[in-house]
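sorry for the late reply, my laptop died twice this morning and i had to redo everyting from scratch. anyway the thing you sent over, i finally got around to it. pasting the sequence first so we're on the same page, its 335 residues, then the predicted structure underneath. double check i copied it right bc i was rushing
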Amino acid sequence: MTELTDPWRLGPYELPNRLVLAPLAGIGNWCVRLQARRHGAGLVTSEMVSSHAIHHRNERTLRELLRIHPDERAIGPAGGVVSLQLFGADPEIMASAAERAAGAGADVIDLNMGCPVPKVCKTGAGAALLSDPDRAVAVARAASRGSGGLPVTVKLRPGQRPGDRDGVRLAHRLVEEAGVAAIAMHPRHASQQHRGRPDYALAREIAEALPVPFVLSGGLRPDAATIRAAWEESGATAVMLARGILGNPWLFAELLGERDAPPSRAEALAELAWLMGRAEEHMGPERAGRWLRKAYPWYVERLGGGPALQDALQRAEGIAAASELLAELAEPVAA
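ok and here's the structure:
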């Protein structure tokens, strides 16, 4: 029987286990990817990056969102494969963006064809491509061509509305006509957003029919038992973990059988301190201080600080001030 600890192949790469960090919008920079690798993720994916922003050489996009840190290759399970997720609906612009992403060091180009957010769909990208399969296939071909033949993977939804199977049909066309190396699917329809139980029976149907790896995404509660059950029910090759690992990167190790207890407060403090330091390295102190305001809530409950600590961290003027607040929670060293 296949286990989450078993290796699997994605194009030319052998990945060490079946746990994948999902593309977390506005979050999945190299700091978060590296954190996931430290705790055992076999494959990590960047946050969604606009192909137009790359093509038009947006300075912040190139400096921050395409950055792959050397430690991503050196820490965690062997392999160090990094996937950069792009979105867009223009094949030529996608080819240009994929070329730039490959030049930045991407090992895999992942395409988002499932995002239901209106500001993405109104450009013809994301889940809008479910209803435009010819364009979707052309975009995937362009990504492969532009990247110089890197493996291309695609993240989909089953369709726009319950009962719609446009995404299922598109998955087959992407593999057969564009040579896509793997399909990831969130088995809720785009109109459902993140509501309702994912259709794991449909996921199994797709997994069994596709000749390439199928990665299960979406609707996975942040506990190991639920994730294992969903993975087994879906018949997926691998499972993609998203917001459930925010403030709980230890979930990767738990799923791999490497720990069976929640982190101590000292571990949580050390992990948050690590993330704060890496964010400052990535963005500089001012921008990192603002970005970390979204990260503090992930850890406060584990730290036992309650609303007062949350409020104080949100009000802290910079990383140094936040570090002082957190230092007060450190357990005293025994004499």
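The two ends are 50 Å apart (CA to CA).
thats about all i looked at so far, will dig more tmrw
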